[in-house]
Amino acid sequence: MKRREFLRTFAAAVAAWPIFAFAQQTQPKKRVGLMANLPLPPVQRFRERLQKLGWVEGKNLLIEYRYGEGRDDRFPEFAAELVSMPVDILVVWGTPAAFAAKRATTTIPILVGSAGDVVNTGLISNLARPDANLTGFIALNVDLESKRVELLKEAIPGLSRVVVLTNPANPLSRASLDTARQAAEKLAVKIEVVEAKSAADVESALAKIKTLHPDAVVIAPDTQLLSKRKEIADFMAEQRLPAIYPFREYASVGGLFIYGANLSVLFERAAEYLDKLLKGEKVSNLPVQQATTFELIVNTRTASAIGLTVPREILLRADDVIE
Q1: What is the C-alpha separation between 75 and 304, in angstroms, rounded?
Q2: Class of domain 141-261+295-322
Q3: CA 316 to CA 320: how far, in whole Å?
Q4: What is the pTM of this model?
Q5: Is 188 left (phi over 0), alpha (psi -120 to 50) or beta?
Q6: DSSP E strands: which ranges in 7-93?
Q7: Torsion angle of the four alpha carbons 200, 202, 207, 209, in this order, in degrees rounded to the nearest 10
Q8: I need a surface site. Which of 42, 99, 127, 214 has the fewest CB within 10 A?
Q9: What stretch(es) of the chain map to CATH 3.40.50.2300?
């Protein structure tokens, strides 16, 4: 009797298996749109964290990638395209991409993997309980701008004139410049601003910096500028100009000082938010979180090449020293 019961149970299971398998194969995948300027390491860390959380591209998740490649003006078109599909959630990197997404939809959740600020720029008004369809993570770049100016003052004896290379089309630009100017005034340092509204303008902006002969340069937190990171770092080396940058990605092209939030960490945390949103959590229940991990990277090879001796105190504070 036990053998006959087992065979009946087994036969029923075998009969049901094709139906179960078909249901698994036809289960609709979640579709996510991702807008960024470039497929840099933070995006890869985002994907890796998603996979560990059980979201596998091609299996239960589809990600529609849209990269501006140095052109922020492409984001509104990308956002409209992704909203029309529609995607279930929009993931964005950078303030311009976040604004494009917000203008394109008031209903689809928008997850900011990283942006410099969301309150000072007007993206949302409340960090604790987002009052729009947008949440995510901020790198605190407005606040960090003063620290970057202070670090240059500490590193360069007699520093008196600093150029800030910025993108005025980025909504973050004004708040960042205000912070840099306030810090510079306290340190008796004069700030001059050179603008590059697009990646195509970077070459002429660098030519203008050459004519100004500053003591040092601050590179503003902007993903369009980041797309031209090698050209910028090469120019600083050729002109023997000390410069400080906001993103780790400048380190791989010879950036002298990098000080800012670890964006890969932010994107890993964003993957955890995406997991919750895909499972039905409301945006309003996910507070905007600020970066808690910051890093100072010093490239002593670049310092030696431009004739700068980095103070020992800075080297001791550095999280990473490239020799």
Answers
A1: 40
A2: alpha beta
A3: 10
A4: 0.87
A5: left
A6: 30-36, 61-67, 89-93
A7: 160
A8: 127
A9: 11-16+23-140+263-292, 141-261+295-322
